[in-house]
Amino acid sequence: MLILESLLKLFNLPVNNTLKISDQINPFNKVLRIEGDKSLSIRWALLASQAQGKSKASNLLMSEDVLNTIKCLKKLGVKIRYSKKSCEIYGKGLNSFKYKKNLILDCGNSGTLGRLLMGLLIHSNNKIKIVGDKSLSKRDFTRVTVPLSKFGANFKTNSGKLPVDVLGTKKPAPIFYHEKRGSAQCKSSVLLAALNTNGETKIRAKKSRNHTEVLLKYLNLPINVKQNKNYDIIKFFGKRKIKPLNYNIPSDISSSAFFIVLTSLSKKSKLKIKNININPSRTGIIKILRMMGVKIKLSNIKFHKGEKIADLFIESSKELKPINCPPKLNSSAIDEFLLIFLVAAKANGVSSFRDLSELNKKESPRLKLGSMILNKMGIKTILTNNSIKIFGNPDLKIRKKIKINNFLKDHRIFMTSTIAALVFGGRWHIYDKDSIKTSFPSFLKKIRSLGAKLS
Ligand code: S3P
To answer: 61 Cβ partners below 8 Å, 6+ apart?
Structure first.
């Protein structure tokens, strides 16, 4: 099948991007290694472009979102060399981008790239156009253009969406920014703008992943974070020289989550996943699944460049409990809710998830589509704009045909549906196989390595 696909692609013939699954996965006992974390890979590349000298990364995620980051930086005049094994970025210091006339930067599917990159562009002396694919072009960009305008930069949006034109300012001024959504992308965009701005930028941010702060601290830059119960106060002084950063990027917990859930919902299976980033601002999936009765053990815990990492050990779960999910865990599990919904589908009772409107603002409206997938599986849900109740069925066994259209080619919708097919049975037709290139190109290869039969 793979050879046939390669031949079709070679001769530019249409490839069928629908995955067909009609067999549940057999018990497995394996060890897996996962590629580098996507958030860290993009942040490393953007920061390395502002450093003075050569930075090198290994275990960088070579997915489309990261490759688009590299392409955008190259268009901005940054020298980058990369192979399958490593990537070298030759930074020329703060504000060293070359802003050619009529520059168009394509961020593909990546909200993280689009929003963080805009923070670095507040100095541009020529107009730059930021574009993206169909899914990214449906997403809100005012959430970053509004705070970035306060630095003095100018933005023209298409009714708040892409394409966005950026025209920078010669003299950005530091700002105070109140981040209320729990969005790490907004917080990080402002921090990257502050990097190039004289004076103190202050942010009051609802809790969200803190990789940018961790990296800035590791680079010895003047960042101060005061942690309160529900929010952080971040103070950052800009215009300091950045030293190069050599980084072996820890593996991605969001990609691991597909295998955590696959193992816990499969029969008589065990899995070890090595070297995973378990930054507490990302471990909502572990906390929530443990509350539902999933067995996850952590071992070999250590710190690497400020990030916490560990090996994870997961076993099949016998009985799953429903959850009334505390909203304070939402942002630390935001990319994993589709998978958590699958666990709730098999729990013994009704689970409820609240304050999740952000989930509908991702690559596709995931709260809505997550509910739709569960309904197709025969699971009852009660859905609102920001909440879902899931009526679990511990005896769930699907026998019918299920078709997942996934028009916006959302990678997480595709991968979650694949996991559902492998654990609950039924005859699934899932679109679009190519979507995995966004965040987890080796996903299907890894699924096959556990013994799954895929078309
Ligand atoms: C990300 C932050 C999250 C997450 C996204 C990656 C990041 O988005 O959903 O996949 O790397 O900062 P928000 O910050 O918009 O919630």
So the answer is: 35, 36, 37, 38, 41, 249, 252, 439
Q: Is the CB of 112 under 6 A from ligand 1?
A: yes
Q: Are residues 162 and 230 in the same domain?
A: yes
By annotation, the residues acting in catalysis are 335
CA of 261 to the centre of ligand 1 (A): 21
Structure confidence by residue, pLDDT tens digits, 266-277: 999 999 999 999
Does residue 109 have its Cβ closer than 6 Å to ligand 1?
no
**Is 185 close to ligand 1, i.e. is its CB under 6 Å away?**
yes
Query: Token pair for residue 381?
Result: 């849900």
Same domain, yes or no, for 257 and 202? no
Dihedral sign for Cα atoms in the order 182, 375, 110, 281 = positive
For 155-189, the pLDDT digits (tens) are: 999 999 999 999 999 999 999 999 999 999 999 99
Closest ligand 1 atom to residue 43 Cα is 11
pLDDT for the residue 12: 66
With a 6 Å cutoff on the Cβ, whether 39 touches ligand 1 is yes
Q: Which two tokens stand for residue 169?
A: 């300012």
**455 within domain boundaries:** no
Are residues 319 and 281 located together in one domain of the fold? yes
Q: Which atom of ligand 1 is nearest to the CA of 254?
A: 10
Does 237 lie in the same domain as 116?
yes
Residue at 390 is within a domain: yes
Residue the block writes with tokens 């067995």: 295
Q: Is residue 378 part of a domain?
A: yes
Same domain, 25 and 47: no
What pTM does this model have? Answer: 0.97
With the most atoms of ligand 1 within 8 angstroms of its CB, the residue from 63, 209, 249, 332 to mutate is 209
What separation in Å is there between the alpha carbon of 187 and the centre of ligand 1? 10
Q: How far apart are CA 416 and CA 403, in angstroms?
A: 13
Taking each helix axis from N to C terminus, what angle separates 411-424 and 253-265, rounded to the nearest 10 degrees? 20
Nearest CA to ligand 1 atom 10: 335
